[in-house]
């Protein structure tokens, strides 16, 4: 699982911020640590910065890239009093089709584009996330998820890591390996 790189020079409430120069450099460094092979699948959040991250990760070797709102921004820990940030607004399915016509969308048979997972109740998120993980288990090769710190931490909890806090975030352009999903 890989969080998007730096977009910290942008105001957090800016809609669809892209990667900064620093973020692009972070991804170039990350490319030296991981290798995406043709049989691998990259599941990416429908945000500009994560899609730009994938473009840089796959510039030399291309795995199959798939977009899913189920790896879109999600707060961690969940707190209904928090207001989602503008930078965490995902592209709509229509925008994805227009901006990224060559990238497929994962359809897990649920109406997952209408409601953001950002503040979704835990029970509903778990149901949706389990369906995505079931889809991932059926794929060949490795699965890379390019997502956001809060989302990745929510998935890590779902996969059995306990007592995680914001201190356990991977950080910009960090990654973790999960062997058995």
Describe the structure.
- This protein is of the alpha/beta class.
- Helix content is 30%, strand content 9%.
- It has 5 helices and 5 strands, in the order βαβαβαβαβα.
- The protein has helices at 21-31, 48-57, 93-99, 122-137, 149-158; strands spanning 2-3, 41-44, 64-67, 104-105, 143-147.
- Strands 1-5-2-3-4 form a 5-stranded parallel sheet.
How is the topology of this model organized?
Elements: E1 2-3, H1 21-31, E2 41-44, H2 48-57, E3 64-67, H3 93-99, E4 104-105, H4 122-137, E5 143-147, H5 149-158
Parallel strand pairs: 1-5, 2-3, 2-5, 3-4
Features:
181 residues; alpha/beta; 5 helices
> Which strands sit side by side, in order, in the main sheet?
1-5-2-3-4
Determine the number of helices (DSSP H or I, runs of at least 4 residues): 5
SSE-based structural type: alpha/beta
Poorly predicted regions: none
- Percent strand equals 5-15%
Radius of gyration: 15 Å
Give the helices and strands as they follow along the chain: EHEHEHEHEH
List how many beta strands DSSP finds: 5
Instruction: Note the main sheet.
Output: 5 strands, parallel
| Helix share, percent | 25-40%
Overall pLDDT, averaged? 87
Shape: globular
Query: Could you give the distance between the termini?
Result: 12 Å
Please sum up the structure shown.
The protein has 181 residues and is of the alpha/beta class.
């Amino acid at each position: 699982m890989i969080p998007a790189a730096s977009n910290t020079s942008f105001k957090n409430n800016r809609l669809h911020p892209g990667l900064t120069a620093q973020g692009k450099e972070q991804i170039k460094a990350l490319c030296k640590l991981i290798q995406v092979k043709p049989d691998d699948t990259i599941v990416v959040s429908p945000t500009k910065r994560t899609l730009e991250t994938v473009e840089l990760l796959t510039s030399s070797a291309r795995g199959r890239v798939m977009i899913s709102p189920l790896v879109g921004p999600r707060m961690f820990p969940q707190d209904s009093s928090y207001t989602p940030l503008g930078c965490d607004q995902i592209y709509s399915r229509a925008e994805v089709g227009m901006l990224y016509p060559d990238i497929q969308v994962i359809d897990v048979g649920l109406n997952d584009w209408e409601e953001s997972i950002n503040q979704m109740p835990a029970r509903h998120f778990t149901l949706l996330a389990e369906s995505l993980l079931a889809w991932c288990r059926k794929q060949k090769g490795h699965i890379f998820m390019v997502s956001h710190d809060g989302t990745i931490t929510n998935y890590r909890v779902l996969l059995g890591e306990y007592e995680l806090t914001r201190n356990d975030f991977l950080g910009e352009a960090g990654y973790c390996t999960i062997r058995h999903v």
